[in-house]
Design brief:
Distance between the termini: 14 Å
Number of domains: 1
Shape: globular
Structural class: mainly alpha
Number of helices: 7
Number of strands: 2
Strand content: under 5%
Order of helices and strands: EHHHHHEHH
Strand order of the largest sheet: 1-2
Low-confidence stretches: 99-104
Oligomer: single chain
């Protein structure tokens, strides 16, 4: 397993499970599953541009430390774990992404 996460994997860990990511992006609950696969316009694990914008807006509203760089380049698992620790310290542990990581 690679220690570098795709943008979608970063979102799964910091924001919410796939089912919720689609809804956050203003699409149906299955939309995010398709983002695992590439298309003519994006690589596997990349989100569509509109989804990126909605994801950033959602994260700003909920104090989730997702950045535009995460949505372009992804992040190392170590960086994501550090951000999750920071979120727990700030009392954001009720977020679905943190609950998913705790189950891993």
């Amino acid at each position: 397993m690679s220690s570098h996460l795709t943008p979608l994997e970063v979102c799964e860990r910091l924001v919410a499970p796939l089912k919720e990511l689609g809804k956050i992006a203003g699409q149906n609950e299955k939309a995010a599953y398709a983002w695992r696969n590439g298309s003519q316009w994006r690589d596997p694990g990349d989100l569509p541009p509109r989804a990126n914008r909605k994801m950033l807006k959602f994260c700003r509203r909920h104090d989730i430390p997702l950045t535009a760089e995460h949505l372009i380049w992804g992040a190392s698992i170590e960086e994501v774990h550090a951000l999750l620790d920071q979120m727990r310290a700030q009392g954001l542990a009720k977020l679905p992404g943190l609950n998913k990581l705790a189950a891993e």
